[in-house]
Amino acid sequence: MPDQKPSPVLKPVPTSSRFGFYSFVGLIVFAAVVLAYRGWSAEGEAAQEAPIAEPQTSSMSQSFTLDNGLKVVVLPDHRAPVVTHMVWYNVGASDEPEGKSGIAHFLEHLMFKGTHKIAPGELSKIVARNGGQDNAFTSQDYTGYFQRVAKDRLSLVMEMEADRMTNLVLTDAEVLPERDVVLEERRARTDNNPSALLGEQMSALQYPNHPYGIPVIGWPDEIAALTTQDAISFYRAHYSPENAILVVAGDVTMEELRPLAEKYYGVVAPTGDVKPRVRTTPERLSAAQRVVREDARARQPSLSRMYMAPSYHIDHAQGAARELMTNMLGGGATSTLYRRLVVEEQVAAAAGAWYQSGGLDGGRIGVYAVPRPGVALDELEAALDNALADFIATPPEQSQLDRAKSLLLAETIYSRDSQQDMARLFGSTLTSGGTIAEIENWEQEIRNVDLAAIQKAARGAFDLSQSVTGWLQPAPTTPVISEQEEL
Fold this sequence. Notes:
The structure is a single chain. The protein is an alpha+beta fold. The protein is 39% helix and 20% strand. A hairpin with a 4-residue loop joins β7 and β8. The longest helix is centred in the middle third of the chain and has 20 residues, at 172-191. The radius of gyration is 22 Å and the shape is globular. It starts with 13 loop residues before the first strand and ends with a strand.
C-alpha cells in the first residue's frame, strides 16, 4: 500500500520525524496530505550514497556490504526470540517514468505474485503458517517489504525475499486483476475521502513541476493504463541487490546474520540495469496558493496550510532546530497554537503543527486548525495568522525549549522499544540520503539546539508566498465543488 508512515490515517496521528520521535498532531486533513504526498514516512533515498564500510559497529547497529552491493544493517535486540526482516529499495513514486504514475506502488502489489519457486500469493501464506506477519509499503522515495517472525524462521523469509528480488514472474493473468485492486484501493482511500482529495490538490499546487505533486498511488487514468510490460520494465530497472538495503532487527547478531545474508542474498547477481537516480529540488512557488473544497461528505470544516521547507537531507544543519521549533509551535496541548486558538481564544477545537522532514528532495512544515461550532473558516484563519506572527516575533522562552527537548527525547526512547520502529527508522533514513552516524548523533543535535536557533528557524519557516492553504467545508446541497486561486 502507499506508505502511511509517519501517520495512521483518520485519527489523531503521531507524526514521526526522520529520526524516530513521535508527536501527536491530530488532524484528519494532515493525514490525508500525508497520504497524498508520502514523504514523509514516512517514509526518500539516494542511490549515490557512499557505501557502508564493512564491518561497521555503533552503539545501536552493525553493518556491512555484500560483494553484490547489498547493504546490510543489524539492530540487535535480544529481549525476545523474534526478528523483523526488512528489504528497502532505493526507488519510490518520484522515480516513476512520466505518465506512469502509480507504477511503484503497483509493483509493490505485484511482488506478491510469485516466482518460479513460490506460487502467486503463497509467500504471505507461508509467513502466516510459520506464525509471522508480513506487508509492504511505498513512499515517494522508497519501497519496502518486511516480515516479523520467530528467530528460527529468519532463514525462511530471507530465502523467499532474496528469491523475489530478481526472479519475479509476471503475466497478464496476475497483473491485470491486481490493477483493478489498486484502482479500488484508490477509490476507497482517496476518491471517497474529501480530506484526501483536498490533500491531493494541495500537494499538486505545492509541487507543480516535481513528482512530489503526484500521489503515490497514482492518477486514476494512468493507473488504468498500466500494463504488464510497464511493471516488468520498472522491476528490472530498480530491483537489484546494489539498489537495496537489508535491515534486520531483533534477536540476532552480525556474526549470525552475515552467513545467512551471504547464503541467500549474496548469490543474487546484480542486474546491471540500475541507473543513478536523477532527482531535483522542488522549485519555489511564484505566489501563495489556495484551495477551497466543498463536499457534502465532509463532516466538519477544517483549515490547513503547508509551507515548503528543507528536509534533513537538504539542510541537515537546521533540521533539529526546525524539528523543535515546530514542536513548540504545535506539538501538543502545551504548544503555542493549541494554547492560543483552543484554550485562550476558543476559536478552534484542535490546532497544531508538523514538520515533514524525511524527503529526499525536500520537506514541508504544516499548520492546521479545526473550528469550533459557529466559527467561520475566515475568522479561524485570521486568528491562526495572528498567532503565527506573534510566534515569529516573540523570542521563545527557555522553559518552552526544555519542554520540547524532553518530549522529543522521551518519545525517541519509547519508539526504540519497538523492533519494527527501529528497523523503519534505519531503513527510511538510509534510503533518504541519511547515514547511520546521523541517526546516532540526532539526540545530541537536539540537545545542542539553543534559543537563537529556534528563533532563526521560526523566522525562516513561514513565508506565505511558499505556502498552500486549504479549506474543507461541508456542502449539504452540492456533492463536490472545487476551486483554486492564487492569493
